[in-house]
Design brief:
mainly alpha, Fumarate Reductase Cytochrome B subunit, 11 helices, 74% helix, elongated
Length: 244
Amino acid sequence: MGAISKRLNSGTEAVEARLRRYARWSSSQRWQHIVLMVSFLLLIATGWPLRFAHLSVSKYVMWIFGGVEGAGIIHRIAAAGLIGVSVYHVCYLTRQFLQGVRSVPMMPSFKDVRDVLADVGLYLGLSDRGARYGRYNYLEKFEYLALIWGNVVMILTGLVLWFPRFATEYFFPWIKDLSLLLHDYEAWLAGLAIFVWHFYWVHLNPKVFPMDRMWITGETTMEELKDHRPEEYRELRRRGEIEE
């Protein structure tokens, strides 16, 4: 009986170790993501009906937000939220740098090239093992860079459309028309990227369905970390932050 009890306890401890939580996102990172998410969704929900006000469905959507005037006000409030979280993120990275963090894990590296080739080899049946991801994989890094580019374009063109008289007086007469065109196309690109690409990886992907809760809790299990991000798991073990 003692041997059986010992094996049962050992098995229980092994399960508890696999399910032990590890904090991958800080509270600051989670709040940045939440503000960005809410701002983006409000901008999409109010921006497209304003842009295509001639469509009958747009009238019903704008009615939800209090008509054209209400939708315009909410759109500007959401734009202020997007600008605010973008400025805060720059300050956050600057503070990290001043505190001695000289590398940004979301920036691409040569390892990402090797990971792409490894995954392509796996998909084509040329290899039995795909990439071994670290803290962030190449898809997440590409999305991060796309987010930076998209925010810069949307904020600059949005400010021109917000203050058209100032922009045309101090810059070029045609800057309003150019900003409207860029704002329109970038909104389509960002919307499709989020609702098709991002939603799949964080919601519809069978590995995380119905969603990856890390954006809420900031935590993941040791088993998920070891299976999905083995390089990060290995690095954390090397630094002594987690134990086998």
